[in-house]
Amino acid sequence: MINNRTANSFRYGALVFGIIWYCVKYAKGLIPADAGDGIMHYFYSAGSWSNADFFLNHWGKPFFILLSSPFAQFGFAGVVVFNILVYALTVIAGFKILDHFKIDKVVHIVFPLLLVLARDYSRTILGGMTEPLFNLASVFAILLFIKERYIFFAIVISLMPFMRSEGQLAVLLGFFLLLFAKQWKKIPLLAAGFVAYSIVGYFLFKDFLWYFTRSPYKMENDIYGVGTWDHYLLSYRNYLDNAGLFTIILGTAVFVYLLVKKRYEDIQFKWWFFSGGLFVGVVAAHSYFWATGQNASLGLTRIATQGMPLFLLLNIYYIGKAPVLKVKWAQYGMAAIALIFAIVLATNKKFPIKPTPLEDKVLRAAKQMKTYDTEGKRIFYYYPMIAFELGENPLLENTKTYFFRSKNFQEEMKTTFSDGDYFVWDSQFGPREMNLPQDSLLSYPEMFIPLKTYEDNNPYDSRIVVIYRIKK
């Protein structure tokens, strides 16, 4: 049998492996793991010390900005370090939950490795995204709940809508958990985060209900299109991986066994209700949004990582309740599985992140822009990586880079652009977010002078980046 001390070393060894893996993969990466939203979140966090309004930016996620902003002052790497710390705290909180229920420590070893194996989860860590903090909050909240620290549980839950909009679901589930636990007096504390941020919003915006009135998410159909109802189910390998799915299948089998044996105490209904409600609820909600083309959904599978770590942890707990784990070979089997996971990660070719064909063109365009005389000139663009590569934060006043989204192009040509400015158009953001098909620029050849075009000599590849010089 693997003794407790050895198993404890193994589980923390797995965590250290995960931390080192993230550090190495980030150091070897050529671009941020998320060259769009991840960079934008960094801009908000880094710029918050210059513009206090950013601390209440709805899209940027206020509580994420608050906690990550000190790290962001050291550059994008600082935000990645913040997320790696979040990963470590998530795993440690998970260990403490399993310890509370006296689950054999050898079972814990797989938890930190399963998270790293989930490709989307790792991309959110390395991409400076907000989902990891949301997941830490959900795991930490359950730890507080099982420790009967109901006041702190309610406060943590109340802050989750300011980490991710899906936190509204966490508040609803938290309400039922406190109801089940007969902690009626603690229920009002679920509004603590909203009240605190609303008061700050009142003094900053003169708007107590800014969380609702300034929401960037609209339910009507928008520019992002629609998908299929089964999109998230078919894409499970992105946010869960086969190893995670197998863990859930095994955990579900033990769950059924516990039901049949009437071991209701071991089911941990409240934890099951919260974790299942959060994970399944997020997947179901975004399946609906994507299938109906609502709420600015783009079918991003990283969305489904929200609640995933807590749900995986629950199934690891169930596996730890399986009678077979009392057998010597089963314990060694768990250690062997963890070793296999580590080998898979060490040989993983999907990390470090490599530029897509379009991102490669954007990188080359940004490098070319550095050779131009941009003193006193403005650079209009939409792809966030342009400003990032130029070392600019487009959200601040002292920048030469400007996000451009067209509303009335003919009027904007007269009033927005100046002689000598630059315009970087790309085939992804240009027609969609910029609301500007390339034909619109080609219609004014005397004003938009192409300096450099990046495209593949492939008639089936329409990915293009063009640098224009504006002449007036």
In short:
Helix content is 57%, strand content 6%.
**Total count of helical runs of at least 4 residues:** 23
Q: Determine the structural class based on helices, strands and strand pairing.
A: mainly alpha
For the largest sheet, list the strands in their spatial order.
2-1-3-5-4
Any idea what the shape is? Answer: globular
Portion in strands = 5-15%
What does this protein structure show overall?
By secondary structure, the chain is mostly helical. It has 2 domains: 4-346, no CATH class; 357-470, no CATH class. It contains 23 helices and 5 strands. The protein has a 5-stranded mixed sheet with strand order 2-1-3-5-4. The longest helix has 25 residues, at 4-28. It is globular, with a radius of gyration of 24 Å. The mean pLDDT is 91.
Name some characteristics of this structure.
mainly alpha; 472 residues; single chain; 6% strand; 2 domains; five-stranded mixed sheet; 23 helices
List the helices and strands and how they pair.
Layout: H1 4-28, H2 37-47, H3 62-72, H4 76-100, H5 105-108, H6 110-117, H7 119-126, H8 131-146, H9 150-159, H10 167-180, H11 192-205, H12 210-213, H13 231-234, H14 236-239, H15 241-260, H16 264-267, H17 269-292, H18 308-320, H19 328-346, H20 357-369, E1 379-381, H21 384-389, E2 401-403, H22 409-415, E3 422-426, H23 438-442, E4 448-455, E5 464-470
Parallel strand pairs: 1-2, 1-3
Antiparallel strand pairs: 3-5, 4-5
Helix pairs in contact: 1-4, 1-6, 1-19, 2-3, 3-4, 4-8, 6-18, 6-19, 8-9, 9-10, 10-17, 15-18, 17-18
